[in-house]
Amino acid sequence: MGPTKLAVILIGALFVTFMVLDWYSILTLGVVNPHTFWLKYCVTLICVVLAWKAHGQTGNHRDAQLLRNAFSFIGLADFFLVVLGGLIDNSSVKPVLLAVGVAFFAMVQIFLIIRHLAAIRAVHLPKSSISVVILSVIIALLLYSPAVAAAVVLREHLIAMGWFTMMGLIYIFLLLTSVWVGWAAKLYGAYAPDASMMIAIGMTLFLFCDICVSGQMFITGWPAAVANGLVWLFYAPALVLLALSGYRSQIGTWQTESGHG
After folding, report:
1. Where do runs of H (alpha helix) occur along the chain?
2. N or C: more exposed end of the chain, with fewer CB within 10 A?
3. pLDDT tens, residue by residue, 158-172
4. Cβ distance 205 to 16 under 8 Å?
C-alpha cells in the first residue's frame, strides 16, 4: 500500500473522528465541538501534501502547479479560518480572520478556474459537441439564477453587512464560476474520466460547503449548529477529490507520473 492510499485512509480516520465528536456535541450541547479544529486542519494539511505530490492529469507542469497553488492558498485560508478562528475567541478579531480567509479562498477559486479552463482549451471538440455547450449553459443557469434570487431576497441583510458584502459577492461569483468550469471540464472530457468526475463532484461539494458557511450568517441557534456541522461533511471530501484529481490514475490506483502511489 503506497503513501497516497495511506494518506487517504488517515484522512478517513480523522474525518470519522471529528464528525462523531462534532455531531455528538451538536445533539447534546447545540454547538460544534470547539476542540476538533486541529483534526480538521490536519485533513487540510494532508490534502495540501497530496496536491503538491501530484504530477498533473494533463501530463504538463502547469496543470500540476496550478493545483499546488490552489491548495497552498487553501492551507493559508484554513489556517486563518480554522486554526486561528478556533484559538481566538474575540468578536472584534473574527471578522478580520473571516475577511482574510475569504480573500485566500478567492485566490483558490481563481487558480482552479485557470487550471480547468486551460484543460478545456486543450480539447479539440467536434461539431457534434453543441449538446455539450447547451448542457454547459443549463448548468450555468442552474448555478447563477438561485444566487441572484437569494441576493435579491436577502438584500437588506447584505446591505447591513457593509464592505464585507462586496467581498462576499465577488467570492460567490468566483465560486459559482469555478463550479461551472469544473463541470464543463467533465462535459468536454478535458481530463481522464475518473479525474473529471473528481473535479465535478469536488467542486459541487465545495459549493455545498460554502452554502452552509454563508447560511450561518442568516440563522441562529440549533439550525446554525447543524449548518456548521455540515460544513466539513462536504468540505473534507471536496479537498480529497480535488487533490486526487491531479494524479494520472484510475480510481483505486492513484499513481503519479513516476508510478509511485
Report:
1. 3-29, 37-53, 61-78, 85-87, 94-121, 130-153, 155-160, 163-187, 193-215, 221-244
2. N
3. 666 665 677 888 899
4. no
